[in-house]
Sequence to fold (332 residues):
Amino acid sequence: MWKSVATVLFTLSLVNPTFAAAQEAPANQKSLPEQIVDAFNAVYGAHPGARANHAKGVIVEGTFTPTVSAASVSKAAHFQKQKKPVPVTIRFSDAGGIPTVPDTNAIPRGMAVKFTLPDGAKTDMVLLSYNGFPVATAEEFRDFLLAIAASGPDAPKPTAFDNFLGAHPAAKAFVEAPNLQPVSFATQAYYGINAFKFTNAAGAVTFGRYQVLPVGGPKFLSKEQLAKMGQDYLVDEIGKRVRRSPAKLKLVLQIAGPGDKIDDPSIAWPDTRKKVELGTIAITKTTTESHTADKLLFLPGTVTAGIEAADPMIAIRSAAYPISFARRFKSQ
Ligand code: HEM
Fold:
């Protein structure tokens, strides 16, 4: 899926000075998060004001209302009974580092959520529309991106990316996953992929992965419908939808079962695992924030008491996103 976007962009990447800079830099002297941001820039080029990945997006606002069962899982403030719903800021996005990528071909899509807790503190969730990840670790993710960057149209066959896919079945499954395009950013499911540890008021611990599921079920376009869509159809659609009525999605926690790996996001846990409904997200409005160069930073490791990172990939992600954030504004 990223391959299709990346393939189109190789020529761009190869003439982009950032690509050359990333190749010349002594990569082994850089931290792993910085190496990964360099690798994204090598695949997509650098675009002033844009994120290294998920560069194109749209920002909306709404509320989160917890269920009664949410408090049984975690003492986190937004999972307790509320006097009024918790405000949320959400950014939906297309995969890839090109801010003008057509919405018609940019999977997996992203959903980033920032909850404003009753005391004003923030807690985030950053999810993808794919249940799983191409690789198990952050090191392998760097290598996945470097293999894409090294496999341009003129690369001899088998390319570095062909070899990578041959050695990583989860990456092959990810690249070959059905290319479904949703009716709306709000009509598809999103997955937290990395596991978190949840502690309730009595001290009981649960390991789980978030899922955000559209109320009314997922809705995708047929090939014929997709052919009629413009390149910004998703970014344009969500505002119109929420002006008519709130778009609702359920936040669910998939609970780890015996033998489920906490530290390997490339393996989706079986769908038969117990799920606890945590609450409902209702998207009610768009924002005045720029959709092309916003100043928002969503961090998977920004969590509140009652939630802790369990998968080690979360710490690497939380170190990489601010590096991309700093680069967003560097050349402006
Ligand atoms: C080692 C693994 C990963 C690394 C290093 C990484 C790195 C990045 C970077 C550098 C950005 C741009 C951040 C910014 O400029 O604000 C980003 C954005 C994003 N990533 Fe990751 N990522 C990783 C794994 C994941 C996973 C597992 C998910 C989903 C569960 C995910 C979902 C997203 C989303 C949705 C965005 C856009 C966030 C926004 O709208 O601000 N990433 N990622």
About this structure: The chain has ten helices and ten strands. The pocket of protoporphyrin IX containing FE is lined by residues 36-37, 40, 51-54, 57, 91, 93, 110, 112, 126-128, 133, 138, 141, 192-194, 265, 297-298, 313, 316-317, 320-321, 324-325, 328 (CB under 6 Å). The chain has one domain: 2-330.
